[in-house]
Amino acid sequence: MGRFLKEKTVAIVGCPFSGGQRRTGVDTGPHALVSAGLPKQLEELGWKVEFNGHQKFEEIGKTITSDADIGVMKQPRLVSAVTKAVADTVEKHARAGHLPLTLGGDHSLALGTVSGSLRVHSDAALIWIDAHADINTPETTETGNLHGCPVSFLLGLPGTDVEPFNSWVPAKPLLRSDSLVYIGLRDIDAGERKILRDNNIKAFSMHHVDKYGIGKVVEMALDHVNGNSSRRDRPVHLSFDVDALDPTVAPSTGTPVRGGLTFREGHYICEALYETGCLVAVDLMEVNPSLLEDRDAQQTIAVGCSLVRAAMGETLL
Ligand SMILES: NC(=[NH2+])NCCC[C@H](N)C(=O)O
Ligand SMILES: [Mn+2]
Ligand SMILES: [Mn+2]
């Protein structure tokens, strides 16, 4: 069940939120995943499932009367308030010794989920599966979409000590740049490439997946975050953006990029991380059922459920 959990309980944190990017519909992702039967599927894997409805972000929305751009940042007050609420919720579940499973919603939410995890598991490593690095700062972002920025805030990079986020994101960052590893990258902005280089951040792009194979890549990723210690005993937060998968596998997502992970490569990552026994939190983000045909949406939802099951112990044998 995992060495850092007090019981085999998964707490589903459904986050119907789209404010970190421009396309509508990603806020319906969590409803779709739950309606597809995810809670019951996790029960069948032997988990006790805690789910009392999705997060009520409308209440937060009502408290924000105007949300003008700050610099180029879009909807900064809303994203800040929502991610703060998510951090508190994830923290609460982690403190109870349960595994928070956050369903997105756009990837800005991970500023909240990872903050919540790190408040409880201060030595947790972050494994980020994505076509994108999501490490733009408010200064480097070309789009102003905050789903492209959560990692820079988590690391406290220069330019992230800005309102309204500095009202709750700690000035002394909870995440260190050597505690983070990426898998699946293939669409990185110029500013992000410089940040990755300057901070010496470990990243396995699709080129590396092709070169070494996914098995070796996951081994190297785990070695990296564990400082090459064979004990491999660091807690792990897995943040999985469904656009890491190839668009032929998971088409209904807001920023698809060709040349992605196969169905098996995506599942292998989840299975291998479950096997470590060190997972303390899982995010599944950027499922947008309103994009493309219904058939594509159904396929993406099914793959999303299947990735989560793989991270929660489903194996073929
Ligand atoms: N979570 C995502 N899908 N992020 C896509 C980010 C794309 C681009 N790098 C940006 O900053 O806007
Ligand atoms: Mn992405
Ligand atoms: Mn992402």
UniProtKB/TrEMBL annotation:
The protein's enzyme class: hydrolase
Record note on cofactor: Binds 2 manganese ions per subunit.
List of residues binding Mn(2+): 107, 130, 132, 134, 241, 243
Domain of life: Eukaryota
MF (Gene Ontology): arginase activity; manganese ion binding
The keyword Hydrolase is annotated on this UniProt entry: yes
Keywords on record: Arginine metabolism, Hydrolase, Manganese, Metal-binding
Reaction it catalyzes: L-arginine + H2O = urea + L-ornithine
Pathway: Nitrogen metabolism; urea cycle; L-ornithine and urea from L-arginine: step 1/1
Protein name in UniProt: Arginase
Organism in which the protein naturally occurs: Pseudozyma flocculosa
Lineage of the species this protein comes from: Eukaryota, Fungi, Dikarya, Basidiomycota, Ustilaginomycotina
